[in-house]
Specification:
single chain, Glutaredoxin
């Protein structure tokens, strides 16, 4: 990796971005923005994704097997998000086939992790993500499993207080895409707002550098 493109680890720790609800400027979910489409960690500060069990269309799945031998773009959100998640999943639906065309030797996947298992059943998640791309991998899990991942990769979220069984509530969440390498380590973040063409360009350049 070229050192000129590597930013300090402390910058990554600050990447808490506004989700589906506006939040005040002093909230940890807001604040840091960058014009750079790809924010890299130093090679010494890669973040291993915790090995926990999630659930999707194929049943239970460990994160270790999920990310093994594939480059992944991880997006954290929820299906009832009124605007941000549909926009970002739409961008990912454009990005994935373009990356596969540009880098046919690389095995790519898009993983959508729902932090709202109370409403996002496995079947519902499958139907929801299939609207954008049938290639997406939708997953959710227990609160403990979700929090183990989101806290490690700094994907902040906040669920609006609500009564058990209530269906109309919002979830504020981080909007970054996270680049996970084939060893299950978060290597970089792609902060929003996202431009699919620009992201394909920078990821293509990045992968060419990694494989030099």
């Amino acid at each position: 990796m070229r050192s000129s493109r590597v930013l300090l680890t402390v910058m990554v720790a600050m990447l808490w971005l506004t989700g589906c609800q506006p939040v005040s400027g002093d909230n940890l979910l807001s604040g840091y923005q960058t014009p750079d489409p790809l924010v890299l960690r130093t090679p010494e500060a890669l973040v291993p994704v915790p090995d926990v069990t999630l659930v999707g269309g194929a049943g239970e799945r460990s994160t270790a097997s999920l990310f093994r031998d594939r480059w992944s773009l991880l997006y954290v959100g929820y299906s009832y998000c009124p605007d941000v998640c549909p926009t970002e999943l739409g961008q990912l639906a454009l990005i994935l086939p373009r990356l596969e065309a540009r880098l046919p030797e690389v095995d790519w996947q898009v993983v959508f992790l729902s932090v709202d298992p109370e409403r996002d059943s496995v079947g519902h998640l499958q139907r929801y993500t299939a609207f954008f791309s049938e290639a997406f991998v939708p997953l959710t899990g227990s609160r403990e499993a979700i929090d183990a991942i989101t806290s490690r990769v700094r994907a902040g979220y906040r669920i609006e207080p609500h009564e058990t069984g209530e269906r109309a509530y919002t979830v504020d969440h981080d909007t970054s895409f996270r680049l996970i390498d084939p060893k299950g380590r978060m290597l970089a973040l792609l902060p929003g707002p996202h431009d699919s063409e620009r992201i394909v360009e920078v990821l293509t350049d990045f992968m060419n550098e990694v494989n030099e």
